[in-house]
Amino acid sequence: MHANEMAEDFPVVGVESDAWAAVTQLAERRLPGLVVCDPAGKPLSILPASQVVRILVPSYVQDDPSLAGVLSESMADRVADKLRGKTVRALLPNDAPELAVVNDDDTIVEVAAVMARLRCPLAAVMRGEEMVGMITASRLLQLALTPPATRPSSRPE
Amino acid sequence: MHANEMAEDFPVVGVESDAWAAVTQLAERRLPGLVVCDPAGKPLSILPASQVVRILVPSYVQDDPSLAGVLSESMADRVADKLRGKTVRALLPNDAPELAVVNDDDTIVEVAAVMARLRCPLAAVMRGEEMVGMITASRLLQLALTPPATRPSSRPE
Questions:
Q1: Minimal C-alpha gap between A26 and chain B (Å)
Q2: N or C: which end of chain A has fewer CB within 10 A?
Q3: CB A12 within 8 A of CB A130
């Protein structure tokens, strides 16, 4: 089994796209994160939902949550305020984790090795310069635990 | 809106429970992670799927994925080998991230503040010593973006 047979669709957003639209997608689809691509479609990074939550809370309230009451505006107002006119690039953390990237002919052990080294819960599967899908850590575990004959897959092996 | 109205069910496993059963649950339900509780039901930590992937790959292969080919056994054999007879405790990383814990009467801003400070994508909601549910970062964003009148919630406000 190679990476191209393990890959699944995963929502991606452009790094120059609208921050509000990206966060709305995260929220409405209840996603743990989005894959962020450059304008050519090359995956750059992950925007985790937890990072967006960080952006919404001032650092003095993060340090002392009992100060949360001093924020007089609603969360909806804070979201609008913090995201209006921004691009996805502005939401990415400075210390954004490196996204695991694998080739479409890598084996399951190779994919696991790259994910493990980067402690990354997602790997982007590339065919040359083109991203053909993503593999999540839980998908990899599912495939690792399932005997090939009964494996859930839409593609022949 | 308080934390008890935001909380949802989330799969938990006991820290002394069987590692194989926990990983099977992660894999079959395609979860990004599990909440790990002590025998009294108090949440201790999160076991991310990416941490389980780390356990399956020897460190020399993590450092050089091109060595993956030297592993002669299948991933299924590796899983069985690494998990047999172990408890969930043995799978937790030494540097396991602190789990965000909030009270059931905390506000949405207080929950966001705790998640943001700990960079944790999940918060356990406690009523005294009892865990009544979890709030994910994407659930929090969903609630933050939704006007109260149209908010998806099974409980009256």
A1: 6
A2: C
A3: no
